Amino acid sequence: MRGMTTPEPQPASHEDLTPATRIVALGREERAPGSQVGAPLVLTSTYVADGPANYARNGNPTWSAFEEALGSLEGGDALVFGSGMAAVAAVLSFVPVGGTVVVPHAPYSGVVVTLGERAARGELTVRHVEVTDVDEVVAALDGADLLWLESPTNPLLEIADLPALLSAARERGVLTVVDNTFATPLLQQPLALGADLVMHSVTKYLSGHSDVILGAVITTRDEAGQARNARLQRHRSLYGAIAGPFETWLALRGLRTLHVRLERACANAATLAERLTTHPGVTRTRYPGFGAIISFEIDGSAEQAEVVAATTRIVVNSTSLGAVETQIERRRRQPGEPEAVPVNLLRLSVGIEDVEDLWADLDHAIRVATA
Ligand code: PLP
Fold first, then answer.
1. Cβ–Cβ < 8 Å for 354, 327
2. Atom of ligand 1 nearest to the CA of 85
3. Residues whose CB is less than 8 angstroms from the CB of residue 217 and which lie 6 or more positions away in sequence, other chains included
4. Using a CB cutoff of 8 Å and minimum separation of 24, what contacts does 235-238 make?
5. Is 121 a catalytic residue?
6. What is the DSSP secondary structure assignment for residue 101, as one 8-state letter?
7. In the structure, how many helices (H) and strands (E) does the chain have?
8. How far is the CA of 108 from the centre of ligand 1 (A)?
9. Which of 95, 214, 218, 326 is the most exposed place for a label (fewest CB within 10 A)?
10. Crossing angle for the helix pair 109-120 and 84-92, to the nearest 10 degrees
11. In Å, how far from its chain's centre is CA 97?
């Protein structure tokens, strides 16, 4: 067409765009006439020799698409793993034999159990700390190899002073990781606050639809981060901690709406938290003022808390979080759950349903259980 100028090519980086736009735009093929708009789902175990990847335990284009989008949101380089726990194990591979890990009293129970088992085998030492007490955490850092942080914590929703703790660890040469599953990169970016590593249970908010188990680790973009990234990739390949391409494709599809889902879930959570606080059947509500998880203790026993979870009609009694549907669980029903978690505590992962329907359902269940 005469008179039309060829448009300038799009900039390769999208870092100038807001996270909401990057979530939608990243992890796609470069635009060209006829190129596919949807991200590729590549199912292959191997590749024709002499290309960029040789064998699919080492690389997959669907992983790369997801990693590009997640890495951009966290401000680093992402690697997808077969589960959150595979990501945890990959991070723990940085701890030398006989090393020391500083960890909150009550982080996600899988972390407590895996560290406890390794400590029992004499592989490492664990120092448990009150994560809300900066002085206590800093005092535990002497001679430590890894500071494990989770904020908000699961399920007590305790908040760590990340900038203070991360800078104290850096001064002492202690590697740091933040489990950012509860906050998501839209509410908190630990690398920008000074963390060396971020990990996620992608199973939760990032994928958001209760249909995949996946994990991720994100490294910083500096030289040290690149070296850690290479080491983590090696761990993923050699230990086979790899993600299924289909699960990764689903996770990327879910990630596209994270900002919209989270906005609604957070608004619902703020409303429910306020109402739970004054509910006659509730003795304590934990809600950090952001995010979409609330933990509350009912005026009654563990058995009565179980009745709440069993009575709700919309809210699902199930052991996960971060999905479109609202989920509830009495956490101490899990054998590995730390004793710091009260037996009558219910964790509520607020979804995107109508908030009045949710409230009617919860209010009814709490009244039935505490009558
Ligand atoms: N970290 C947190 C905060 C979690 O809640 C979970 C799972 O519940 C994990 C890690 C482990 O992730 P996954 O279940 O994907 O292995």
1. no
2. 16
3. 78, 79, 81, 87, 90, 91, 197, 198, 199, 200, 232
4. 235/90, 235/93, 236/79, 236/81, 236/86, 236/90, 237/57, 237/58
5. no
6. E
7. 12, 12
8. 7
9. 95
10. 40
11. 27
Contacts of 268 (CB under 8 A, 6+ apart): 292, 326, 350, 351, 352, 353, 355, 358
- Cα(284) to ligand 1 centroid in Å equals 25
Mean pLDDT, the chain cut into blocks of 10 residues (371 residues total):
51 80 94 94 97 93 97 98 98 98 96 97 98 98 98 97 98 98 98 98 98 98 98 98 98 98 98 98 98 98 98 97 98 93 98 98 98 94
Cis preceding linkage at 61, omega within 30: no
Catalytic residue among 145, 179, 196, 361: 179
204 has catalytic annotation:
yes
Residue 353 alpha carbon to ligand 1 centre in Å: 23
What are the distances in angstroms from CA 320 to CA 120, 204, 211, 323, 348?
28, 7, 11, 8, 10
Distance 201 CA to ligand 1 centre (A): 5
Ligand 1 site residues, Cβ closer than 6 angstroms: 83-85, 108, 110, 150, 154, 179, 181, 201, 203, 213, 215
Does 357 qualify as catalytic in the annotation? Answer: no
Cα separation, 96 vs 79, whole angstroms: 22
